[in-house]
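Team,

Forwarding the record for the chain on the shared tracking sheet. I've put the sequence and predicted structure together so nobody has to dig through attachments.
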Amino acid sequence: MLGTIRAFWNDQRGIAMILVAIMLPVLIGFALLAIDMSRASGLHNDLQKGIDAYALAAAAELDGRSDSITRADRAIDNLLTNSTKFSTSDDHTLARADLTIKYLTGIPASDSILLSAAGVDGDGVNWASTDPKAVSFAEVTVNPSGVADGAGAFATIFPASFIGSKDTIDIQPQAVAGFVQSICETVPIFMCNPFETTDPLTSKTIQQAFASGDTYSREFRILKVDSNPGPGNFGLLDNGLTSIQEGMAKGTAGTCYNRNSLTSKTGVTLGQVNTGLNVRFDLYQGSLKNNTDLGYRPASNVRKGADKTSNCNKYTVATDGSAFPLPDGTGYDSATGMTLPIPSNSFWTAYWAANHKNAAYPSIPAATDPLKRTNVPASRYDVYNYEIAAGIVGDKSKGPSNEVGTPACFKGDLTKADPSRRLMNMAIIDCKANQAKLNGHTAVKPDGYASVFLNSPIQKQNAKDDDDPEGTGAEKPISLEIVDVDGGFANNTLVDKAFRNEAQLYR
């Protein structure tokens, strides 16, 4: 009996079947898990690509205008109409209810700092906002299966319910994209915001001032200072050029500036600013004589009220009434650096009679008034454009000046003269609030950008310095008008031509 038992105990025939019977469920389980993990990875990749696309589409609309969030939501809705089926759970089609979308004013510096469902980070900073003018990031997340329809949930092959778990897996990819705006066509100087005050109740951004009509037809005079800049001043920006003169002449800084960050530049550049700007008026001074570079071409209308002694490299204003530049404004306020708006059509009487054969002023429309008013006089820029459109740039002024507005001094191709050459884009900075940052190569966020029109050439303060225009003699202020600004209140001419809008994934 014992021998029989011992023989049975030592008999190993058929043991493989037993081991296979025991291990088969385990092997099948691991195989199913591998298949499920592969499917989960594929679904995650598909969902992540979709969520990336939604975040980028939304972020591309966050340009700071009042309808930016509305447009961002619409962009996502348009993509959702593709009806892509992302889930194997009930053959699910991705819908808006499957997504959580938050708009953020910024994101934490580190990827390890996560935001709560409300958009608050671990330090208690709330990044979420519903203000369309403040947000610049879009965060898109796929909801888990317990929220709405659960687009990221799919049924597993592995029967997890046998071990007390769910037979679905939640996939929750997330993407954060931001709106990046840069400007590539701007001179390497900034202008202090003339509407900034120390009182938040009265201070205005340049966009607010433009939208309310406060900038229209005013003359702004800005002067370079090296310390304590404020309204009525301008300063320099870091750039990619060999000289400030090149940037002034060509209207570009030689680099693209981030819309939200500029770096100021110190140093005295007297002589480079005025000679660079004056090429637009067909004045080629100092080393710019006999220039043929098309980047230095004149404007189509270079009338500037020059007397009979002026020439291609020296500008003197006529004082005998035989020629008039675009007139200065009245009521100049040195605290803000600007004049009053043009009061009436009689403002143009002397200018028109002197430069256009004693003709009566034709009551030119206020074409660039942001409020589209019909009862206000034309601005200097309106008159400048009217002279070009009416074909009267070549009219001679009274003698002995006999000035005409057609350029004649440029040594290059004069057929390339351009009406927009007296326009340039310029950063506007709140100099009172950022005074400490403007003299030490420190990054500062601009208040905005403006398209400005040059009213007249820039001269030296002292007549004796006119013989050395590129020298260090003090310059008179730059006289200009503001024609357009960036942002939701603008006419959008500056944005369309100068800004580069891009959306970029961050997380």
